[in-house]
Design a protein that fits this description.
By secondary structure, this protein is mainly α. The chain has one domain: Serine Threonine Protein Phosphatase 5, Tetratricopeptide repeat, CATH 1.25.40.20. The longest helix has 13 residues.
Length: 147
């Protein structure tokens, strides 16, 4: 779906009173426990208008996935797929709109750990620089954690 169409749909749903923090069915295979913002960060990552609309309409920028869904692991927030998908526009937007750069996923990894290539992820130097500038720290789950 083109980003312009997606953002029109998101705007219409918000104007109709949709709950921007509603979660998908946690028992549904492959889609359980994610919010519209998490879906936008994974599937509509290039549609920055929808991401901004959701957050400015009250979506929790730090909402965590409650299951492993798409490119989200359990406990991850929207900031994680912005790094994993190398989205150099989404990550700064999420930081600007208040994303906590130090929240850890269920494995103890922070966004900085993921950007540094910890776990199964490839290193993303552009994200490391941006996250450090925003005050990001390495997490307890990091093999090279400084504490």
């Amino acid at each position: 779906m083109p980003p312009e169409k997606a953002s029109r749909i998101v705007r219409a749903l918000i104007e109709a009173g949709a709950d921007v923090n509603a979660r998908t069915n946690v028992n549904a295979e492959g889609t359980g426990g994610v919010t519209p913002l998490l879906l936008a960060a994974v599937g509509l990552g290039q549609d920055l208008v929808s991401v901004r609309l959701l957050i400015e309409s009250g979506a929790d920028v730090n909402a965590r996935a409650t299951g492993n869904v798409f490119r989200l692991d359990k406990g991850q927030t929207a900031i994680f797929p912005s790094i994993i998908s190398r989205n150099q526009k989404l990550l700064p937007l999420l930081i600007e709109l208040g994303a906590d750069v130090n929240l850890q996923d269920d494995e103890g990894l922070t966004p900085l750990d993921v950007a540094m290539g910890r776990g199964e992820w490839m290193e993303q130097p552009w994200a490391v620089e941006l996250l450090r500038a925003a005050g990001a720290k390495e997490g307890a789950g990091s093999a090279n954690s400084k504490g």
